[in-house]
Specification:
alpha/beta, D-Maltodextrin-Binding Protein, domain 2, five-stranded mixed sheet, 12 strands
Length: 731
């Protein structure tokens, strides 16, 4: 009778349902562990019988039932259901192989499943959740740990992105060159940003960058900038934590929201397209929010001034928050603080626009031409005032992309930013409209830097709205936000980190060889390079991107040929040959051409290149080397500059550009750029002097003097054996 009384409750209908759902999740996990491949494909279960799923389901059902019998007073079923969902979700999210749109939809559905499971979990275990407590001393250390993890994830991802040559000129190459010149002259000069010598402040007024300059002075590396950005973004955990303390959150709530800060995808993801000044906007806005709530007037003024220095449009974010303060402020002091912020931000914005329009390239209002009556910022304001219906239409003009963007920002926060009935707080959602209204597509992509300000406002709304919730709803909304952030962090962040590290380790040797190859180019030389090469060459005064500078007019032209020559590279290579450039190297990764006007030592560079370990030359280089190897070391040679390294052991060696007489045993032409005027004149001398052509193809031309005392036929037979000379059959 005692056992009957003990067992009956654990087999109630609701507990059986929970146990069945938990067993279902666990069974799905077992199937995933037993079978590789795309679980979203209909063929995934091909050749699988019912045996494994049924046995796994029944086994877990019996196991959870036994656990419930041993612990009858515990809610083991609800814990098992949540644990099973977390476990199988982790596996699903690590093996998403569907289209991008399907992945997003899958994540949204998965968050919905979490919301349902958590509703039951909270209703069953609210007393346990309420009774949980943490020592106050633990909370700040947990917040610091979350900040460190956040910084580490961002730094690892972005540093390995750079090391794998995945960072392009726009915009990381620009900022590397800018910091190099700031360290040299204190001026933010670039040449690759607008294909001319120009201050970056002529494009964006961002004096905030000088805060990173001391660290770059100490460690002048591109990696310093990536790590610096990571630390700046992660530092926002400090004002975020202070806000939670100001709002009176318990220690466990502060820990939970610190974890949320770490997991929200828009915090980390916005750094993954390399360094941008926008990264400062995120922590500085959080400092402004805290200083206002704490009524620290000097600090509020300080952080407001700093925030406006981030970028010309940063003042817009400050103005929006100031408007909120003016409307919601409950005291005269708070309203005056809001008025002061608004006045300063508006005046600074007017100054910044005037400065860029007067001394720079002009304010980038073109991104809002779709909602401007005359293409100006004033036109945007006029349209919003006079035709709000058009504004509302433009918010979702891009359809799925707009909807996805809204959900990507709000779902990871469990929709807490919307959980309010206070009108004044809706003002804090205005920054999100700024991205939705533009027709600039990148502003709706989380990987870019346009979401830091929005994320700061959404986190503020999350804290304020959660503070107003009470009872069970409060705990439920927090858990939903954590679960949603976990889902999207697993989809958007973890694969990015792992992928960057795997890419580097899988091809580390080639990346290091490419880096060593580029390192031989002198720092004082001007370069024109491919977009993924230029960031590794940008620490110099003059650097250009071949995509925007299709000219052979720099000391060095470096083409990225890892995927072969494209039309742009072929065109620029032809210009190099036409302008008399010499080919220093053509490896399987890059082709390096040197200007005839460069006053450096070509042979020294060639020697430095020969010391690069593991370098893999192109087929053309190998063919040229094999052909030239037949020329005896004791023969005198007259050749062109790019071919001189092949004759380093020949005692008598001349350059055609300096020795314009055909009087050596061999005259060797570099024909990769065809004959130029100089080589054509020498070739005519060879013909007139009775020289015999040993070989002439698209790479080299070799002419042998009639006075050479060696055996011409022996050389020719060697080339025939190598396959470089074809013997035509007799007719």
């Amino acid at each position: 009778m005692k056992w009957k009384t003990r067992l009956l409750p654990i087999f109630s209908f609701d507990r059986i349902v929970r146990r069945a759902v938990a067993s279902w999740f666990m069974m799905a996990l077992v199937v995933l562990l037993m079978r590789d491949g795309d679980f979203s494909a209909t063929a995934y279960l091909k050749d699988m019988t019912w045996d494994l799923p049924i046995c796994a389901f029944l086994g877990f059902f019996l196991l959870i039932s036994a656990l419930s019998a041993l612990l009858p007073t515990k809610r083991t079923d609800s814990f098992a259901m949540l644990a099973g969902l977390v476990a199988v979700s982790s596996m699903w999210l690590s093996r998403l192989m569907m289209t991008v749109e399907e992945k997003w939809l899958f994540c949204f559905v998965l968050v919905g499943v979490f919301a349902l499971v958590l509703w039951d979990f909270v209703s069953q275990n609210d007393d346990i959740l309420t009774s949980l407590s943490l020592p106050s001393a633990v909370a700040p250390w947990m917040a610091v740990a979350c900040g460190v993890v956040c910084a580490a994830v961002i730094a690892i991802t972005t540093c390995f992105r750079y090391l794998t040559f995945a960072s392009p000129t726009y915009d990381f190459g620009i900022f590397i060159q800018m910091f190099h010149n700031m360290a040299e002259s204190f001026e933010p000069i670039t040449t690759c940003e607008r294909d001319k010598v120009l201050s970056h402040f002529a494009v964006h007024l961002s004096p905030i960058y000088y805060l990173l300059l001391p660290f770059y002075w100490l460690f002048p590396s591109a990696l310093t900038l990536q790590i610096g950005q990571a630390v700046v973004v992660a530092s926002g955990i400090i004002p975020f934590y202070l806000l939670m303390k100001k709002y009176g959150f318990s220690a466990k709530a502060r820990v939970a929201f610190s974890v949320l800060y770490m997991l929200v995808p828009s915090v980390s993801k916005g750094c993954f397209f390399d360094l941008h000044e926008n990264c400062f906007l995120f922590p500085l806005l959080l400092w402004i929010f805290w200083a206002y709530e704490a009524e620290k007037l000097p600090l509020l003024a300080f952080f407001t001034a700093l925030c406006c220095l981030v970028k010309e449009d940063s003042a817009v974010y400050v103005t929006i928050f100031a408007l909120y303060c003016l409307i919601s402020g409950t005291t005269k002091k708070r309203k005056l603080m809001g008025a002061g912020m608004a006045l300063y931000a508006i005046l600074y914005f007017i100054f910044a626009v005037w400065y860029i329009d007067t001394f720079g390239e002009g304010i980038m209002s073109g991104r809002y031409d779709n909602v401007s009556s005359d293409g100006s910022l004033v036109g945007v304001i006029f349209t919003a005032f006079a035709n709000p219906g058009f504004f509302f239409q433009e918010i979702l003009t891009r359809g799925w992309e707009s909807v996805k963007y809204i959900l990507a920002l709000l779902v990871p926060l469990g929709f807490l930013p919307l959980a309010t009935g206070k009108f004044s707080r809706w003002i804090l959602l205005i920054p999100m409209l700024l991205n939705l209204l533009t027709d600039y597509p990148y502003q709706l992509e989380l990987i870019y830097q346009y979401h830091f300000g929005i994320t700061a406002f959404l986190l503020l709304l999350t804290l304020m709205n959660w503070r107003d919730l009470t009872g069970q709803k409060r705990r439920y909304m927090m858990l939903v936000a954590l679960a949603a952030s976990f889902v999207f962090y697993s989809y958007l962040i973890i694969p990015e980190v792992g992928g960057r590290v795997r890419n580097y380790t899988a091809d580390k040797e080639n990346f290091e060889i490419l880096e060593d190859t580029l390192d031989i180019i002198p720092e004082d030389a001007s370069v024109n390079a491919g977009t993924f090469l230029l960031p590794h060459l940008a620490q110099r005064w003059e650097a250009y991107d071949v995509g925007y500078h299709p000219y052979a007019d720099t000391d060095f032209v470096i083409l990225d040929i890892r995927g072969g020559y494209d039309n742009r590279s072929l065109e620029l290579r032809s210009k190099c040959w036409a302008n008399g450039y010499s080919c220093l190297a053509e490896t399987k990764q890059v082709a390096i051409y040197v200007s005839p006007d460069w006053d450096g030592d070509f042979l020294a560079l060639s020697e430095a290149l020969s010391r690069v370990e593991g370098i893999s030359h192109s087929a053309a280089h190998v063919m040229t080397e094999q052909i030239l190897s037949v020329i005896p070391k004791d023969a005198s040679v007259n050749t062109m500059l790019p071919l001189t390294p092949y004759f380093a052991e020949n005692e008598t060696l001349y350059l055609i550009s300096e020795h314009k007489t055909a009087d050596t045993d061999f005259v060797v032409f570099d024909l990769r750029g065809s004959y130029n005027d100089e080589s054509w004149a020498m070739m005519e001398q060879c013909v007139m002097g009775g020289y015999e052509c040993l070989i002439e193809n698209e790479y080299v031309g070799i002419f042998v003097s009639p006075d050479w005392n060696g055996d011409f036929l022996t050389l020719k037979n060697k080339l025939i054996e190598m396959g470089y000379i074809q013997i035509l059959p007799a007719e």
